[in-house]
């Protein structure tokens, strides 16, 4: 290898490390999303007792963050076309910190209604972060590693869930229960909320260090600044006259009609020639939720109890599930830029619907008890259901979990990326909300029917990916409009 080639290789590695660092910082928003969801999962029983809530009121408290996420996702993409991807992400930090601080203090500041407000505000923050982060990472990533960098979003959510589970367990161990006092009148469930300050603070400290997306800068006519950032992302140098960066800027301009351009709003996007592409993105988001990712865990405690793990071992169960999630998402990160997005969705989706069909079969053949199908006295059915649950986790976290984010960041042309991301992410949060609200009622009525329904959606998801998705592996973002 010649000296020039050696230097070139070193520069490429330096550029990849810089892009990876930026991607890791940006995914702190999705980490908060996972952290916040698990905090509420651990605190909801105590919150219900604190404010004397019924089942409906607890359900509203549980879904308030998703409602906020829906609002944030719809606003964020389009807003990022006006104030920049970095501009939106900078505003996320204060919203996350608001929930962390005032959610802890809600018993003294207005009780249950104020808690709902805090959850909605925090939801707006992580909804904006999870919407804009994939697009930002796509816009700063070299094509050869773009898939794995965007996939960090799913890993961040899983790690957030794990860290919060540890914090919840520690708070309960110290106090004895989620409702017990820890110190100075502060109860364990409030300490759980207080722990949200940690990821929110880390996010606020690191976010100012990221640069603006070079593609956004080009839309605003700031070519000189964009060239310097693209130079760092291509060969690790900081040159505004870098030939590769200038060539890329010209390619971006060509997609914008020759120069700085105003990105299309959501209504204009839905009337444009790309509307079918946007509908495909929204359907992709819907299928990600309709395959049961937020529903199958509802019965996880029952499944573990059927194989001899008591309800008191909730933390051990969380660790088992988290290990499978981490294995799955790691496999997705390593494979996505080699196997391709479309094939990963089809392979992972197939594993998912087979697993869902297995769980549905277990509930179909299980003997009936006082409250529906009872697998607590059948170790064989219990092991089969737990194995299917773990296979589902491997399938989802290696494919539809991270690759939805990858596709959302990659598949839309520069002219519509902000608005299209809002519509796709909004669809994701909307169907998430619908499933969270309806699943308890459906599964109480018929667990077998519910999981057969998810299995059917899994089959449709694989067919959809095969028929309607175009492979984006290795393509530049400027090729997406073609």
From TrEMBL:
It comes from the Bacteria. The keyword Transmembrane applies. Keywords: Membrane, Transmembrane, Transmembrane helix, Transport. Signal peptide: none annotated. GO terms for molecular function: carbohydrate:proton symporter activity. The keyword Iron-sulfur does not apply. It holds the Pfam family Sugar_tr. The chain crosses the membrane at residues 18-35, 55-76, 88-110, 116-138, 150-171, 191-210, 276-299, 319-337, 344-368, 380-408, 420-443, 449-469. It is found in: Cell membrane. Gene3D superfamilies: MFS general substrate transporter like domains (1.20.1250.20). Residues 22-473 form the Major facilitator superfamily (MFS) profile domain. It is a multi-pass membrane protein. Belongs to the major facilitator superfamily. Sugar transporter (TC 2.A.1.1) family. This is MFS transporter. It comes from Alloscardovia macacae.
